[in-house]
Amino acid sequence: MSNPETLNIDRNDWPELFEKFVDGTCTPEEEMLIKHYLKNPDNDHQVSLLMNKLWNTESRHIHNGNKKQSQLRYDRLRASITGVRTENKWLAYKIAASFLLLISALLTAYTQWDKMVNYIDPVTYITQKASAGQRMEIQLPDGTVVWLNASSAITYPEEFREDTRTLKLTGEAFFEVKKDALKPFIVRTENLFTKVLGTSFNIKAYAGQNKLEVTVATGKVAVGEMADSTDTGKELASLTPHQRFTYFFKSTEFVKEDSVQIDASKAWVDGKLVFNTATLEEVVQALQRWYDVRITIMAEEKITCTFTANFKDRTPLTDVLEALSLTHKMKYSLEGKSVTIRALESCEQ
Questions:
Q1: Digit-coded pLDDT (tens) for 186-198
Q2: Cβ distance 124 to 263 under 8 Å?
């Protein structure tokens, strides 16, 4: 074996050799060269730079909480190295290298942790449903509060283990999302996603309807198309308070509105039934969900009229139908839980 006193390490080869030393893949001769190199105080600056580079590379991917603890241990280690005599410095650096190797191993375990846990202990999904005529309030595992409107459902994991907090919604819900900068909150609806960090917003996406509506109360929201069944894809719009995004499924077109009345969009949370230039079809769909009734529309021509009205909580169905009939756009008959609405001439094209 060559005498290390007579060998020099090329400056360009040193970073690669040092990484091999950290990984424990050096040959016996290479390890002797490194130990000799570390003993030389003239190389302290370069060694320090390489250690910092390795630390920054490894720690960049470590979870914030673990990183803080690892940084403290690393700082204490560097302080102890400073006080080591030159002839024993290679041993201190070997300790530091072992520590970096441990960091690397912990990093690998951390990045694979979710997969390992899900394999050993599969995540359980919970589905909450609000039937027709019902509304409910739900608190998610992360502290997010969800108000679920009638004829709506959400499905979410009992524990958010992944890098995102993802759930699926059918129907309408208002969200007050608990802020977590490390785990974006994602709501999947059909082939679209709504993504936030911490904010409040309303999503209306009932099955069978041609459109989805996202209305923002506070914070910032991104809406886009799903790349597949699990991953978010192309972002279509970014929304801020008092903005609404409406997506039409048949045409795949969308519009973005400003200065939207938030109180009207989330009035249902407080038990209020609000119609703002709603079509007769939209009124009927809302009444069926709200009162758990079946409504049939009788019309000879295409219905073109709209309705604007505001009803307080627990307003009887008969009072709502009477008020709507006063517009002279429709008449109704009620028998049990079946309603027949006849559109008048003023409501037809």
A1: 999 988 999 998 8
A2: no
